[in-house]
Amino acid sequence: MSIAVPVRAPRWVSRRRIFEQHLADLHKCKNLVHIKQVFAQILKSDLHSDLQVAAKLVSAFSLCHQMGLAIKVFDLIEEPNTHLYNTLIGAHVRNSQASQAFATFLRMQSSGLPADNFTYPFLLKACSGKSCLPLVQTIHSQVEKFGFRADIFVPNSLIDTYYRCGPLGVFGARKLFSMMVVRDTVSWNTMISGLVKVGELNEARRLFDEMPVKDAISWNTILDGHVKAGDMNAAFELFEKMPERNVVSWSTMVSGYCKVGELDMARMMFDNMPVKSVVPWTIMISGYAQKGLAKEAIMLYDQMEEAGLIIDHGTVISILAACAESGLLGLGMKVHTSVQRTGLTCNTLVLNALIDMYAKCGSLDKALSIFGGMPEKDVVSWNIMIQGLAVHRHAEKALELYDRMKQEKFEPDGVTFIGVLCACTHAGFIDQGLDHFLEMGRDFGIVPQIEHYGCVVDLLGRGGRLKEAFGLIQSMPVEPNAVIWGTLLGACRVHNDSEMAAEVLDRLVKLEKSDSGNFSTLSNISSAAGDWDGAASARFQMRSSGIKKPPGASSIDVDDEIHEFTAFDTSHTESDGIYQVVATLRMDLEEVR
DNA sequence: CTAGGGTTAG
Questions:
Q1: Interval A192-207: pLDDT, tens
Q2: Where are the PPR repeats (predicted)?
Q3: pTM here?
């Protein structure tokens, strides 16, 4: 007699199967808690010295930006092979640790392991900017020497990297492409997109026409070339001629019309799209938001959510950036709510965009509280917060934050100092600002860019040290641009120095003939100083140059409606009431004095 | 390795 027992695998079998499943997908896993659990099981099963398993763990940890753990796993292996080295190099590159990637590469070479055809594309990905060109050339010659050009992946990736070095890389890319016996569609497309990237549209077009078999990417790339050149007529012509139009083609057109400000055309394209992904929705909403069309942007955002589309970080960052630019707090808060709902709240880029949006829209408390609760801050987070405090005249707090940043061992970059100098300017801490300017190069090896000189000119100029500012402009190693002279001109206005203003304007018109604002500034300074001849002469120069430029406007978001104002503006429907309030405020201010 | 949206400054 037998007893019926339900047929069921023992618990340990299914557990083991689950473990194996987890192991198989480990390298794509982004859930840190889960990875750590699997890691614990791996250690228990003594699998950590398995080269395959170790590589998967390194990948998984690098996806979660846990490079410390990735390196720990790597170091458990006594004799790593090329594949494991490649994985660690790729992990560093993914976390934008270019120098560590190259250090790992050198370590691999000194351990006697040869690089393979996977190593080079990883290393190349770490190269970007014109300073990398010599490095790319070195890698290129190694590739030639060891015959890795045979793998089409490698030369394709080299071409792409040459173009990421900017216009200086064009020569190398062209030469390599011309020497390639075997070219695939990707080789051609990489060339075309590279030429578009460096602004050589005609050359890109020539290659496109020459290309034997074009695919959708080729067409979309050259379409984007015309869009980037701002030529929507040419883009439209091409769009009509395309053999097939996919979501990317339509999105490129929508984005192009948004960029040239033709929102109606953009909307028409958007409405006509046969299939929409989250990207065109993002483009259209950001397009509205950038132009300050809050109602349209919000309506479309609601429609997108109703349509059940899942927003991603791209959506959030793009829309928030537009909100920050135009001061659309209402839409920004809506996006914040969606972020909390979709669990994007631990994404550093998303949080940075949120902080910036709140700061730019004037909600510093909100910005500070998100900043304080961030699990993983990066340099950009600090920069945004410092800048946000600085422009809202919380100079001391901005500088305190800068000190805290250094205490917490974050390395300030060039942008950090823009915020720091801005804070010093607003607070009138001239000498402290100059100290920070020196600190920048001395302690952090940052070469001052023209923007930094602009900040220092502003710092000195607003503080009334006009002569020093003038001297700095003449002695700085970069050629002064219109922004620099314009900054000094503004300082001349504040301090009513019509003599220097005339001198500055002289240099300014050489650089920027078409800005009427400069002339009116001089005219204002001259009249304020009682120099009526100077004022008249400035007005005459302005008229004779035939310049007309719309004045800069301020805007404010009231119940999702954007109101714009210029100086002495009477066009608003509530204009009379507004000026009454202004008059009252002015009287109140006089009293406080 | 190639196509559309994407955080900080000016």
A1: 999 999 999 999 999 9
A2: 81-115, 184-218, 246-280, 347-377, 378-412
A3: 0.84
